[in-house]
Design goal:
It contains 13 helices and 19 strands. The chain is α/β, with parallel strands linked by helices and 421 residues long.
Length: 421
Amino acid sequence: MKKVAVIGSGISGLSVAKMLSAKAEVTVFERESAIGGLVKCDRPNDILFHRVGGHVFNSKNQEVLDWFWGQFDKEKEFLKATRNARILIHDKIVGYPIENFLYQLPANIVDGIITDMLAIQGAAYKKPEEYPHFEAFLKGNFGESLYNLYFGPYNTKIWNLDLSTVPLEWLDGKLPMPNLKQMLMANIVREEEREMVHASFFYPKENGSQFIVDRLAEGLNILVNSPLTKLEKTAAGKLKINDDQEFDDVVFTGDIRALGSFYTNATEEQKALLKSLENLRSNGTSNLLCECDATDVSWLYLPEAQFKAHRIIYTGNFAESNNRGSNRTTCTVEFSGKHSVEEMVAEIAKLPGNLSMVSYNYEPNSYVVQDVDTRANIAALKALSEADGLYLLGRFGEWEYYNMDKAIEAAMLISADILKG
């Protein structure tokens, strides 16, 4: 059997380790004391806390669905929910996506949006790749009115950067593509959005996404408190980790920006590519676990500058067990960047729902941001490193904004490649 090391025990690392474990000897190295990466949870006061956002599962890829449900009992262990996302704007809660709920906005605002959209529809069509950056794409497809009302302020807040510096390649497959006819139909017929991958989703009855990682970890050899400090190619063609164990293949799901400092005898070409990736941008998030009033909302987006938070995730509505330990429902308020507890507590007083803090967390790296040449450089690095048995995987290993289903899909491709080699 092949010996394979997996660096990192987030959803990407655990998924690929599980896929490989039937036909390979797998060791998972985790630098922290607990597994789960961005999807791990804990229970302060017996209330479930998604420490980085709120993680749910669904996929449009049947292969991903088949593999995932092969690990779980869908009927006994999961709940199915319909996404009920909303936007707080002008002191009013309106539907999401906002372009489908224009009828809920003031008439003067709708007039400007429709005028913009008529002008856009009458102009020559531009493909997404023809726009120089994300800001130009949003303005060119939604118009200045809707951009200034929602898309500009919300995306600037969540990504914490100038949208004119964001290349469209990074958002491939994630961009909204409005069509005036579809927008008008949505506002006349008034049907909820059902095409988004998480328009409905599955969620564990107990312990949220921690339940998922704990199940995937069963039977795996996981070494916690075991950071990667050194990676080198041996004369025999193996990959040695930390001057200790040798492996046929290594799957790296850690931070690609740090790999150059570990990979001691990379080739000059590999070193140059790793050097080009050292300054990639990422955003951290501060999360405040709160008790709140009952609501039927699942996500509430907060685009306006008067609020420093950018969304509330009502995780207490995902499963009743999440609220155990409280006589109210619970939610997570997410802020982009680092904020003090005192600042966040002051901010939640501005938000609806009579929020009161239970716990908090700061994650220095939550969202990855690509530069113009990021994908090309990572693709070139992959081509070189995979020939040595080193595979890059996951949100931070590939520097892609993966949700859980996309992380599993990427793990499938890598595990198949390793096992056929």
